[in-house]
Amino acid sequence: MMDFLLAVWEQFRSFFGFDALIQLITEGDYSKLRTFEGIAAFISPVIPIILILELVRGIFYKKFSVISYKIPFFSYVLNAFLGRFIAIGMTFLVIGWLEDKALFTLPFTWYWFIYGYIIWELAHFVYHYLGHKVRLLWCLHSTHHAPETMHLGVTHAHFFLEAPYADLIRTTICILLGVPPPMLFVIMFIDGTWGAFIHVGESVMKKGDMGKLGQWILTPSHHRVHHAKNVEYMDTNFCNLLNIWDRVFKTYQPQKENIAIQYGITRDIKPNNFLDAYFGEIIALAKDVYHAPGIKNKFLYLVMPPGWSHTGEHKTAHVMKQQLQENK
Q1: In sequence order, which ranges of 63-134 are alpha helices (DSSP H)?
Q2: How far is CA 186 from its chain centroid?
Q3: Residue 205 CB: number of other CB atoms within 10 A?
Q4: Under 8 Å CB-to-CB from 324, ≥6 apart: which residues?
Q5: Which of 252, 185, 195, 190 is nearest to 225 (CA)?
Q6: Is residue 62 pLDDT above 70, yes or no?
Q7: Which of 8, 120, 162, 296 is 20 to 30 A from residue 27's alpha carbon, by CA?
Q8: Average pLDDT of the chain?
Q9: Rounded to whole angstroms, how far apart are CA atoms 226 and 133?
Q10: pLDDT by residue (tens digit) across 84-113?
Q11: How far apart are the C-alpha atoms of 138 and 282, rounded to whole Å?
Q12: What pLDDT shows up at residue 45?
């Protein structure tokens, strides 16, 4: 029992990320704030603190619902023991395999850092786009879209194999295109912090568009659009911080004042049911593959977009958007 409680305490400390900051304050060496480690120690607790603020404000304004945190909570607990370590291992494996095969190697300077971040965003776009357009990969990503409300807890709603797949794609592209590992790790820290922040709920940032800054970066408002199941919003805003690749590939979509966001996925699921959110898409895919006639159709169910059918009665996001336009 004591070992279990210690494990829970360690997860609590890890979640809030206070250890490095406490050590920095205890040592009193604030010159470390000029280093990456010091900056990381200072920033790491920010997102958990905003999460607590979000919870408190939700309770105060009577908009807090414990059940809406069910899927993120159980996903976090499971991933804390599985996905995290597999993802870290995947990143180091890819670096070991491909670092000497890079087309070129960049120095770690501020101007090459800009290049590195643009390449990272491209890699993130590729992983994220495939997660929506390849049904097998959608099975890994759909857990993140299953919650029917938006709050910082949704950051932790992921299938445990999604992070390893994401880091396989992103690390491969970055390393091959010259991003050195130290720069990559700094970018990953920034990306993870911002990627968590853009899930902040309306109780903390009602509009979340961040004014004119939203013209250049992806904001909470943009990411709320990404999580919407409204046909008009589906499969948009795949980037994480810089919206450059969404603009290049025509997937950029600001929130429309006349279209209220409906969160969740289009498949009928049991509301706030962890098992359905976590395994439901996998079960649905398995049934489609099992009933599909012929090897070709079985394979196509794995690689075609969600909603594709061997009968030709497709309900993909692309088809639904076309139908919406035709009916206007």
Answers
A1: 70-81, 83-98, 110-133
A2: 17
A3: 18
A4: 231, 232
A5: 252
A6: no
A7: 8
A8: 85
A9: 14
A10: 667 677 888 899 999 999 999 899 999 999
A11: 9
A12: 65
Tokens coding 265: 């996925």
What is the SS3 assignment for 164-192?
Answer: HHHHHHHHHHHHHCCCCHHHHHHHHHHHH
Residue 158's contacts (CB-CB under 8 Å, 6 or more residues apart) are: 75, 79, 83, 143, 144
- pLDDT of the residue at 270: 84
* Mean pLDDT for the stretch of residues 293-321: 96
Reading the block at residue 31, the tokens are 């010159």
8 A C-beta contact, residue 129 and residue 238: yes
Contact 174, 99 (CB under 8 A): no
Range ranked top by mean pLDDT from 56-70, 74-88, 188-202: 188-202
Longest dimension (CA), the chain: 68
The 10 Å CB-count burial string (b at 16+, else e) for 149-158 is: bbbbbbbbbb
Cα(172)–Cα(91) distance, rounded to whole angstroms?
A: 9
Q: What is the DSSP string of 217-251?
A: B--HHHHHHHTB-SGGGTT----SSB-HHHHHTT-
Structure tokens at 278: 């976590």
Compute the residue count for the chain.
Answer: 328
Residue (of 165, 292, 150) closest to 207 by Cα position: 150
CB 149 within 8 A of CB 264: no
Q: Which residue has the tokens 């087309």?
A: 103
pLDDT on residue 273:
86
Pick from 157, 204, 270: which is nearest to 57 by CA?
204
Torsion angle of the four alpha carbons 286, 288, 293, 298, in this order, in degrees rounded to the nearest 10: -60
Give the C-alpha distances (Å, rounded to integers) separating 205 from 41, 227, 254: 25, 16, 16
Structure-block tokens of residue 73:
């909570």
